[in-house]
Amino acid sequence: MAKSKKIIPYKKRRDLNMGIVIFLIIFLYIFVNVIRGYTKRQIRYYEVVEGSMSHDKTHTGLILRDESVQTAHSTGYINTYMRDGKRASVGGRVYSLDATGDLKKLIEASAGKDDSISDANIGELKKKLSNFTSNYSDSNFEYVYSTKYLLDNAASDYSNVVNVENIDNISNENGLNLDVVTSPASGEISYAIDDIADKKEGDLTKADFDAGKHPISYIKNEQLVETGAKIYRVVNSETWSIYFEFDKGEEELYAEKKALTVKFKSNGLEITGDYSVVDTKDGYRLGKLTFDKYMIQFIASRYADFDIESSSVSGLKIPSKSVLEKDFFVIPVEFISKGGDGVGDGFYKSVEKDGSATTVFVPANIIKVTDTNCYISTENTDIAAGDKLIKPDSNETCEVSNKEKLLGVYNINKGYTVFKTVDILGSNKEFYIIDKGTKYGLKVYDHILLDPEGFKEGDFIYQ
């Protein structure tokens, strides 16, 4: 019998390669963890330590004075009779207007006769330039223009050509009819004009502190001015105030202060002023420093850079970026009730049950206690807005409604976020020094969230 030549291939059995399976499992595990690492919220914390600091707070303040703005009642070329910062009496000549412009030509023609400046006057100009060089900053370029104006003004005053006597002589000799303007009140004169001079402290807004939006214009000799143009200001009092915006936590830092010592960068002047806090009409809160001398040094300025000098403070040191602000219910301190059998402090609350009111004790996480008030979280599940609390051993009640904002940090010692209030004693750009004796506050070696944004009370940190 002939052999069959048909060949049937044998199907090999494929064995599972355990090495590949293990590799795929490991790869998948690594991949999943890498993805989770990128998407998981990063937890960074800071360990609270003791520290101290002495740092001056720098501000750009806005100056307000008792001043009135005077306008031109005719058109003409102006020639001033008084230098910026000089005091005018009632009826004293401030400037004149020449409708034809002839006075300007005559002054230019006589400029070469005797226009020298004395060595003493040159020394004064050099002193002004030296002061400018020492205090110039790129962040305050407006200082360049104000200094140029003051130098021009001083040079004109020191010159023998443009002064009251020469203007009178020239106008009389040539039969010029000048419109001479006198001061309506006694006070210091300034020809530096802006759009804030008529504002009162209650009218100030955040936009007023942007110096770039409120440039100063300077009236100069022989300049053509139109009817109704602002020409000069009369400052009626030596008392003046400078207003400044608070940095985060700074208002609390000065809460007990009645006076602050400041050092002005433009001239190195160091003075102490009465300190207060003002609220504007739109709810804008500002620091205010009031002085009763040295007004003349700043008469041509609307803004001034200064440092608030502070003494060295010590306490707990925490990063400024870890501090946040939250709303809390405010409850009179006498409503706190002591818990028993290991139960913490809390409150007696009136609860409606079966149509009648009953009183129950509710433990509460009290965040802060002062002489008059205590503060509890608005996220409390047992006490909410509208609840009625009962004063211990009394029928007096208090409805939960009032709120206040407090500064604090998230403590994470227990693995979840717990808000702790902070009382700031000092600060710089990176750190705060806080009171280490605050009840319910932080202690040395506590762990706090470095970046609290996106977290809320009770969030678990490690899960």
Summarize the structure.
This is Membrane fusion protein. Keywords: Membrane, Transmembrane, Transmembrane helix. The chain is α+β, with helices and mostly antiparallel strands.
Spatial arrangement of strands, main beta sheet: 3-12-15-14-13-16
Q: What is the share of helical residues? A: 10-25%
The number of domains is: 2
SSE-based structural type = alpha+beta
Sheet-strand content, in percent, reads 35-45%
Number of distinct helices? 6
Average per-residue pLDDT, rounded, comes to 82
| Major sheet details | 6 strands, antiparallel, barrel
**Form type:** elongated
What is the CA-atom radius of gyration, in angstroms?
A: 37 Å
Question: What is the terminal-to-terminal distance?
Answer: 79 Å
| Unreliable spans | none
Keywords: Membrane, Transmembrane, Transmembrane helix
Protein name: Membrane fusion protein
Question: How would you characterize this protein structure?
Answer:
With 463 residues, the chain is an alpha+beta fold. The protein has 2 domains: 58-221 and 229-309, no CATH class; 318-449, no CATH class. Helix content is 17%, strand content 36%. It is built from 6 helices and 29 strands. It has helices at residues 18-39, 102-109, 119-135, 142-158, 164-173, 250-253; strands at 45-47, 49-53, 57-71, 76-80, 87-88, 93-98, 179-182, 187-190, 192-193, 217-218, 224-225, 230-244, 259-264, 270-279, 285-291, 303-308, 313-319, 324-332, 346-353, 356-363, 366-369, 373-377, 388-390, 397-399, 403-411, 418-421, 424-427, 431-434, 447-449. The strands form 7 sheets. It has a 6-stranded antiparallel β-barrel. A hairpin with a 3-residue loop joins β21 (366-369) and β22. α3 (119-135) packs antiparallel against α4. It is elongated. The mean pLDDT is 82. The chain crosses the membrane at residues 20-38. This is Membrane fusion protein. Keywords: Membrane, Transmembrane, Transmembrane helix.
